[in-house]
Amino acid sequence: MVNNRPHGQFSPTGPQLAAARAATGLSVHALAEHTGLGVNTVRRAEAGGAKVLTTVNAERLVAGLQALGITFLTPDADGPGLRIATPPA
């Protein structure tokens, strides 16, 4: 997992969060409802990454996306990424 915070908290990038939401097929409004966050909080995270959120809100957003089958990947030479779980058959 990406770890950009000095105190060790997971912090995906804005593009990772936007891609994760797009991969789930949810609108900003639907993801906000799913996570219990405000629409503006989700938009702010997608623009600036989870590091612009409070720790609690970042954790809620990441956990909500992970519950929808998103796995955030550690950055490598190509940068950070994500994996989408295959839906059960």
TrEMBL record:
Q: What is the lineage of its organism?
A: Bacteria, Pseudomonadati, Pseudomonadota, Alphaproteobacteria, Caulobacterales
Q: Which Pfam families match?
A: HTH_31 (PF13560)
Q: Tell me the domain of life.
A: Bacteria
Q: Which InterPro entries match?
A: Cro/C1-type_HTH, Lambda_DNA-bd_dom_sf
| Name of the featured protein | Helix-turn-helix domain-containing protein
